[in-house]
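note to self: the first set is below, dont mix up w the second
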Amino acid sequence: MKYDIIIIGGGAVGLGTAVRLLHKDPSCKILVLEKETAVGRHQTGNNSNVIHSGIYYKPGSLKARNCIRGYNMLLDFCREQEIDFDICGKIIVATDSHELPELDKIYDRGQQNGLKGLRRLNSSSELKEYEPHVAGIAGIHVPQTGIVDYTKVAAKYADVIQKQGGTIRLGEKVRDIHISANQAEVITTSGTYTGKLVINCAGLYSDKIAALTSTKVDVRIIPFRGEYYKLKKERESLVKTLIYPVPDPSFPFLGVHFTTMPGGGVECGPNAVLAFRREGYKKSDVSLSEFAETLAWPGFRKIVSKYWRTGMGEMYRSYSKAAFTKALQKLMPEIREQDLEPGGAGVRAQACDRNGALVDDFLILEEKLAINICNAPSPAATSSLSIGETVADLALKRL
């Protein structure tokens, strides 16, 4: 069958792109291919469900621009589609004086990115105005942060796409892509489809899909599993909203934190450990071929040499509930091991270049008949409609 645009990947970014394409050009014939039997099954459906404010990101970066714009687009979409969300705010907490310069940097970035109403918290007593059980010496209150169920968002994206004439095919894994002079042929486990343009939003497999359309892909996806605990029901009152540490500026993860959940309850985490397969949500999930590919990538070996101490600490916390609890106690000393019960896990698709740099920004690579989104970790769900807008503009120029 022939289409104008074939989108590979039924997560928030792929679906958000289809939504924006159909908004801009309702006559555009769009096909979304998803290998799972439902949309939003991977990064979209296995995250902390936070609506990110954009406070952390370098001003002018793709993350900063798309998070701020995407935040507003997402809230408008949720209001229009009657999806519940809660703008509950969060605090970022410094527990040691060496974290204060980074806290100042985050505050300055938030102001440069246009966030209004940020409050610098200069003492433990000011922190406790927001979170009575938190421990820290300073912090920032970010009123814009919220929570939403991204599985519901993805499902509604899919509903909107289909009502506007788009096609979504589930259970169709892409096997190959053939590029000719003026069309792309996408071969799946169930059929063959042709289009004028392919948009790759394949998340954990985005580098592999990109390699089918280009010889210039010089990044690899390294899968990092993030594991969560949940607070037991009787201890949920310890946390009112969202509590984050000051992140390590040399490591692209935010550190273990406390997050209230859209359906109730409180998540604690995540850590960040290397997954032994790209969709390795459990410690027992292993793919020898995918793990070998990770080890063979020269950039990954450089990451190991740079971050091995941090990585060992994350791995230790993965296997030791006591160590995980100790990390949480930096923010909230009252937490005890017995307060925690096992939660879920997600896998972050983190692009790594050949030189060992973990790509910090969204990464979009263009070919004549393909647009490859090769790095879209957090805050991609918050930013999904804005990323979709950006990609839609690129795509419609080609048609």
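second set (the one i keep forgetting abt)
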Amino acid sequence: MDASETPRPKRPPSYVDAIAPLVLLVVLIAGGLFLYGLDALGGPIPAALVVCSMATGIIVLRSGHTWSEVEDAIKRAVASVVSAIFILLAVGALIGTWNLAGTIPTLVYYGIRWIDPNFYYVSTAVICALTSMSIGSSWTTAGTVGVGLVGIASLLGVSPAITAGAVISGAYLGDKTSPLSETTVLASQLAGADLYTHIRAQAWTSVPAFLIGAVVFAILGLSGEGVLPDDTAASADLKQLGQLYWISLWNLLPLLALLGMSLKKSPSALAILTASLFAGLLGIFTQPEVFQRFVADPELATPLVYVKGIWSAMATGFESNSGLADVDRLLSRGGMDSMLGTIWLIIGAVSFGTLLQEFGLIGKLIDPLIARATTDGRLFATTAGTAFGLNVVAADQYIALVLPVKTFKKEFAQRGFAPQVLSRVAADAGTVTSPLVPWNSCGAFMAAVLGVPTLLYMPFCFFNILSPILTVLYGATGFQIARTRPKEER
């Protein structure tokens, strides 16, 4: 038997055990950013997360656990993100076929025609909020409508980074308040709150945060932030798109199909992949010339050109070779292989986070914080800080949502807070801050599908930044804090 498998007395982790992996993570991430800049997210940081996972495994072994236990925890970690991995692969395929079939070019074409650049950011936030609230998924919203809106931004001359911030702000408003959102349902169930009571409680922080963000987006747009002095370039881009594709509302049928499947609560990965295939098949009839240019094999029979075109767009993405630099840069994207780096990052992150959680390293740090939260304001700040901290160190939205609710549920109940108060705090600080962390599964996803690094769009995710601030402020002042019993009894 391997020495690491020999049963030994288990001891609880020490503070050094709990802090050492976090210090190593900070050192490696800082070193990666120093040496590689934003390129660190493409390889060095995922590698650092794997190293941190192995280092945590060694600490766990020293505490008396076996390597089999470590491996089992990592297996559970990877199993927990299988659905996210399939969604990522499906979104990569969708971006490729939607560019091939003209769906994204059509969204860009009409977006340039209909949206005033001066109100582009606020329009983006509202469009994504309405979409996400109707389907309950921030990832689907960002991976479809959001991709088109960021693409339009680069052609209009407005900032892609600010646009990505507006996409994420709108997408997470819906993710946090829609009854169709799995995180909304999960937060209410864990805290023991009625779903619609939870949503009404969410509105008190979500609506003001979104409205403040919308005002800031409007000011940025009206101030001319990144806006072209005239529409000459945009008009030229419209002509170029019109020459390369048959622009028609028919091209938006895959988007409507995806929205319909999402409203019927079809599995996300299945719905996205189906919409991807549907777009490819539709493109055979609407964009045959695009297929010919993309495959560029005159000796191949026409039916095989269509098969190879769809297959290649799904696997390695669509590549535009029109010779028009702006259009080629916009459309040459997608493919399942474009998501492999993001999947590597997510696997490393959740493995690290799960080891910290399952072997008590996070609990070792959180328990003293609860003991020191002697006032309501401190309790809210501690809960919100824990949720955000878990997004950083555990790198997974669900851990950041579930663990604070489980950890603080008893304390909130003892102090007489209604269940929806805890569920709101966890969602405000756990759900919406996840895309602000580059190595978090949500941050990695948003950066991958929108094509904007997390650290560039992060300052403009006003809704995501304001939500935890408001929830802590409400806790400190007692504003809109529901109670289960009067103050005299408490």
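remember for set 2: The mean pLDDT is 84.
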